[in-house]
Design goal:
Blueprint (H helix, E strand, L loop, with lengths): L3 H12 L6 E7 L2 E6 L2 H6 L2 H10 L2 E6 L8 H16 L4 E7 L4 E6 L7 H11 L2 E5 L12 H12 L1 H15 L10 E7 L8 E6 L3 E4 L25 E3 L5 H4 L2 H6 L6 E3 L1 H20 L8 H9 L1 E3 L7 E4 L2 E7 L7 E7 L4 E5 L23 E5 L12 H17 L3 E5 L5 H14 L8 E4 L1 H11 L6 H8 L10 E4 L5 H12 L4 E5 L9 H8 L6 E4 L8 H6 L4 E6 L2 E6 L3 E4 L9 H9 L7 E5 L3 H15 L3 E2 L6 E3 L2
Parallel strand pairs: 2-3, 5-6, 9-10, 10-11, 11-12, 16-17, 17-26, 18-21, 18-22, 19-20, 19-21, 22-25, 26-27
Antiparallel strand pairs: 1-2, 4-5, 7-8, 7-28, 8-9, 13-14, 14-15, 15-16, 23-24
Helix pairs in contact: 1-3, 4-5, 6-10, 10-11, 10-14, 16-17, 19-20
Length: 643
Amino acid sequence: MPSLRDEMEKKIMEILPPDAKFSRVDFEGPNVIIYVMNPRYLMEHSEYIKTLAKELKKYIIIRGDPKVRIREVDKLKRVITDMVTKSVGSNVIDDIVVDEPTGEVYIYLKRPVRERGKLEKDILAETGWKPWIIPTALEMGKDLPRSDIDIVKQIQLSTAKERLDFLKKLGMRIHREPIYRDARITVTGLGAQMEVGRSAILVRTRESSILLDCGVKPSSSGDEAPLIDDLDLDNLDAVVITHAHMDHIGFVPYLFKYGYKGPVYMTEPTKYLMEVLLTDYIEQAESEGRVPPYSRQDLATALYHVITLDYADHPTDISPDTKLMLYDAGHEVGSAVVHLHIGNGLYNIIYTGDMKYGPTRLLNPAHNRFKRAELLIMESTYGGKEDVQSPRQESEQRLVELVRHAVEHEGKVLIPVFSTGRAQEVLLVLNEAINNKQLPKVPIYVDGMVLETLNVHLMFPDYLNRTLREMIYDGVNPFLSEYVKPIERARDPEKRKEQVMEILQGPPAVILAPHGMLNGGPIMDYFVHAAEDERNMLVFVSYQAENTVGRRIQQGERKLTVRYYSDRVTLDIKMKVESIPGFSGHSDRRQLINYVRNMEPKPHKIMLVHGEPAKIMNLALTLELQLKIPTVFMSNGESIRLV
């Protein structure tokens, strides 16, 4: 009986003309790699590639056969540099990373260019190497730290051969005929069921086992892990990550620490953000005298197994019976709504992760148009009947008013933020307010991971909304200005205290720093020294989970003990405390209901996750009454059979 590879080779030879000089076909992870001796011919006759993708129903990558590639790396880089210079101008390349084992080359630009498709075809035709042009705007962030970006690229280079072996083994596991013919699909909640945090949902068929997210739940007494003790890591086919927040990615390296050897799917920005956040997570634990749940090596291993996908690019095979597509979730840069196609039209699951169904200054609204949708698994963070956020414009005006009030009273404004999303939006609002003379020229200090993640936003402008994307393509940095003061965090505790006190004893200022829920992070350095001064102000712009320091303060506690490095510090909070929920990257109740109401096609069933119990139950009742769609929810550890 001919193998799938044999059948594929036969089809390829039937479709490609002899002039292409087909060499061989390989499977690398979810992709089908076709090697040819004459890549120029295929680049000039790209209609054959479209026909191949349609007939094979796979994602096709064309590479030149090793025999026709430029062999000297230095010569390859010179040829590419000359071609890029002639096409888009001189001094535009930031870095060229050559992946010799695969025959691919990654070209990072200092500034983005709009037209890249033809240049990529020309480079493949001329060199035989498959190019990937990454149109970053890193030139705008030259004063920002970029060590995390370099680390991700270094991992890619240093593990190139091992990664190719991994992808080939994975390809053979994915691209085979399903063994089982009878249908059975179950969903098990391993976290984020009737709670906010530690998102982890296991989808199982007779053929496959797929984990959606793997995060931790922050609390004042420590982070809670998802229920993965009984997870069969040897038979786990894939992990799919929606975005790089700790409650969705925080436990991914732990899987590799205990034996997982499979792929982790996410968008390209999420890969870089994951390195930034989890490195900081490890360092933060160590600085507080705690043992982190995994090591830097475990994180590097996780990154080595990452496979990135673009939004709505093409269905990607991730197991013999399941295809994956990612769509914009509008929550943070690179955040994704997951679409699982199970079987040959058998069942479709849409998982929103965290999503924002409304326009923001940073991102597009969450996507809700699909070909099919039997089950919608939807977050419900703000699903309660009182969870109606103010219009974004009102929230922005309120922030400006609060900052102006604090500045007029010689105070400091502390804004705890997550490193992506709210931090960048607040910067956009404050910069605009100063430029429009709604605020005086007050310094805006930006500390912690916000600096690293700013570079990721500049690295991937195509993931931002059209307004910001066009600004960046036109050479304007929307995040940085003369008022924004990046702070490189001193590692020594005494020097760090001096650094913080110099800012707090200086003129009025705004301070943006993680963690967004006041559960550790650089914001605590400012908070413990600013909390007892009534001139200062604490402004929450993000969701505050149960049992976090932020939630306790939000609910009225003014005397509390917090962890500060390895000590416990008792504070008498006299600073003003304000909350502006309209900045949230989560959909409010109206947006959640409208997401379903406007969704095409309507799901047959809804499952609510990532919400407090009362909010989930109230939203479930409303969806059933208003939209007539059966709505369910689970407890952690519970399973529901779908088919």
